[in-house]
Design brief:
The structure holds 2 protein chains of 2 kinds.
Chain A (H helix, E strand, L loop, with lengths): L1 H10 L1 H20 L1 H6 L1 H8 L4 H6 L8 H10 L2 H16 L2 H5 L2 H6 L5 H33 L6 H27 L4 H21 L7 H4 L9 H5 L5 H24 L4
Helix pairs in contact in A: 1-10, 2-7, 2-10, 7-10, 7-11, 7-12, 10-11, 10-15, 11-12, 11-15
Chain B lengths: L6 E8 L9 E8 L4 E5 L6 H8 L7 E6 L2 E2 L4 H5 L2 E4 L11 H11 L5 H10 L13 H13 L5 E5 L7 H16 L3 E5 L3 H7 L2 E6 L2 E7 H9 L1 E6 L5 H5 L4 E6 L4 E6 L4 H7 L4 E6 L4 H9 L8
Parallel strand pairs in B: 3-8, 3-9, 6-7, 7-8
Antiparallel strand pairs in B: 1-2, 1-4, 4-5, 9-10, 11-13, 11-14, 12-13
Classes of the chains: A mainly alpha, B alpha/beta.
């Protein structure tokens, strides 16, 4: 099992490096503008005040230029999870999906390794890659937040990044489950992306559109309250929800992959 | 025989969901230790389905199979410690070099010895330091052969193993099969190359439309062929005299002057009759699998059985 884990990481080493560099660049670029934006906060708030609440909700709330508002709206609520979700869903749909479509999964299963062990090794490798890239992003965010004097407690930023990691892992687990059931890579990717974007839009609008409150609870984005975490209100029940969701996806993936015909 | 068999299938069947017909129907066969079994059939006949079922990549619809006495589904992981598998589609990790590829698979199932792996590499003249995706089909196939043989398994399941190999490397591959056979390993291989099957297999089974239509022993077929004579006489055929001979099993008149005899047993009476006539030509047959099996490959309406 460790060999599959190790070689999967080895196969993904360059893409992991490029993803890490991309995310570090995004964070650096975003936070380097903070001092300039902060000085013009009052003026910018006036301009943004003309936008309606639904539009503002899509960007993470109504506060964009306070330290928490800026970090949340520009990075933690949308861009960081969005990029990491692209990485995570891509991984989730291809860790088993690509091996199956290219026929290499048979090379592995022709060796004395059980299907549950193979799928666990693949899932762990995927989770490790997402964890690695998120950790690098988190460390850079924490470091730069200190450099530009945002004044947000660093533990709050770290906890927001943890919630972001769990959110990304949740979407990745959905894609992993779909590809493990034998749907093609493209289907797994497509279905998960639609579910992610739908959940993001519904979850963001739920605060302003009452009819969406209950449906929004069906989507992971509802449980991702990054602005609250940055302000110091960390909700462990949300993390528990993500953990249970990921666990259920993994168990279903194991059960489905255990006896099905390989494509 | 069955007690000692390495591979036994009993009415093994596979019907894919949404398919109207069985891809594999009631396959019953066995392969003993040290036996090389050739599994032949036209494209789409069910060879790969049978192999993928044995490898537990797909689940049988009905029937059962054992390898080394263990159930192919329940004991799949244990069984695979003793199997060397070569896939028909030649799938490899294209970005890995041959060395990395063998290292990865070797970690999952260690080679019997590093020396043996090196010996295989040397004999097959495999290129290990280039990405597999940059190699020709034949060169990738050499590395696939190494991974199947390197742990000296008790059963080799090979799907079109020599495809892409040049004649020299085919000979090396045949030697490897002979060596595996000599140490008691069984080989179950599919192939389209009848001359290859004739050369290295002990027994062949022909599968058509998912069903095993015939199973023959190569040595027996060779013996039968060797006892077939094509005779040409200068004058008319002594048909009645030939028919009355105890050794003549079958007589076919090809023309007023030529006849084909299938004989068995003591040949002296035959030659004493031939000595009384002017025989212008005697040909003995050699085994030609292509001739023997080609009609199984043809669509049913074209067959003249």
């Amino acid at each position: 099992m460790f060999s599959v884990f190790k070689w999967t990481l080895w196969q993904r080493r360059w893409s992991t490096l490029w993803w890490s560099l991309g995310i570090v660049s995004l964070i650096t670029l975003t936070l380097s503008f903070y001092p300039t934006i902060h000085n013009q906060a009052a003026q910018l708030n006036k301009s943004f005040g003309s936008l309606n609440n639904s539009t503002l909700a899509l960007f993470g709330g109504t506060d964009f230029f306070s330290p928490v508002g800026y970090l949340n709206s520009q990075l933690i609520y949308l861009m960081l999870p969005l990029l990491l979700i692209i990485l995570g869903v891509g991984l989730g749909s291809s860790l088993i999906g690509r091996e199956e479509s290219e026929g290499t999964i048979e090379l592995l299963l022709a060796r004395p390794i059980s299907r549950p062990r193979l799928i666990l090794a693949k899932a762990l490798a995927g989770a490790f890659i997402i964890f690695l890239v998120t950790t690098i992003g988190s460390l850079v965010t924490i470091g730069l937040a200190k450099v530009v004097n945002m004044g947000i407690p660093l533990t709050n930023i770290a906890m927001a990044c943890l919630a972001c990691f769990m959110l990304v892992l949740t979407f990745s687990a959905i894609a992993f489950l779909l590809s493990s059931t034998g749907r093609g890579r493209a289907s797994a990717l497509g279905i998960t992306i639609v579910y992610t974007l739908g959940g993001y839009i519904i979850g963001s609008l739920a605060n302003t559109v009452h009819g969406l409150r209950i449906p929004s609870m069906l989507f992971p984005y509802h449980y991702y309250q990054s602005a609250d975490i940055l302000r110091g209100t960390f909700n462990w029940s949300s993390i528990t929800f993500f953990g249970i969701f990921i666990g259920v996806c993994l168990i279903l993936a194991l059960l489905s992959f255990r006896r099905r015909d390989l494509g | 025989m069955l007690m000692d068999s390495v591979l036994v299938t009993t009415k093994l069947s596979k019907k894919y969901p949404n398919a109207n017909v069985y891809a594999l129907k009631n396959l019953t066969l066995n392969v003993g230790p040290g036996e090389v079994y050739g599994f032949l059939g036209p494209n789409g006949a069910g060879k790969s389905t049978a192999i993928r079922t044995l490898m537990n990549f797909i689940q049988p619809t009905s029937g059962s199979a054992t390898i080394l006495g263990r159930d192919i589904i329940k004991d799949s992981v244990k069984i695979k410690q003793e199997i060397g598998y070569l896939a028909g589609d030649g799938a490899v990790y294209n970005k890995m070099t041959g060395r990395q590829y063998l290292e990865y698979l070797g970690e999952l199932q260690p080679p019997s010895s590093k020396t043996y792996q090196q010996e295989l590499t040397k004999r097959l003249q495999a290129t290990l330091n280039k990405p597999l995706g940059s190699l020709s089909r034949g060169n990738r196939q050499k590395i696939s052969i190494i991974q199947a043989f390197m742990h000296q398994p008790k059963l080799l399941i090979l799907d079109e193993p020599s495809s892409g190999l040049d004649p020299l490397m085919q000979e090396v591959f045949y030697e490897l099969i002979a060596e595996s056979k000599a140490r008691g390993a069984a080989v179950f291989m599919s192939s389209h190359i009848l001359s290859e099957v004739q050369k290295i297999c002990d027994r062949v089974g022909i599968i058509r439309n998912g069903e095993l239509v015939t199973e023959r022993n190569i040595a027996e077929m060779a013996e039968e062929a060797a006892q077939t004579f094509d005779l040409t006489f200068k004058d008319n055929l002594p048909v009645s005299k030939l028919k009355n001979l105890a050794c003549v099993q079958k007589l076919v008149e090809n023309s007023p002057h030529s006849v084909t005899l299938q004989v068995r047993g003591e040949l002296a009476p035959l030659f004493s009759i031939l000595a009384q006539y002017t025989v212008t030509n005697i040909d003995t047959r050699t085994l030609d699998l292509e001739e023997a099996f080609m009609h199984y490959y043809q669509p049913r309406e074209d067959r003249h059985v």
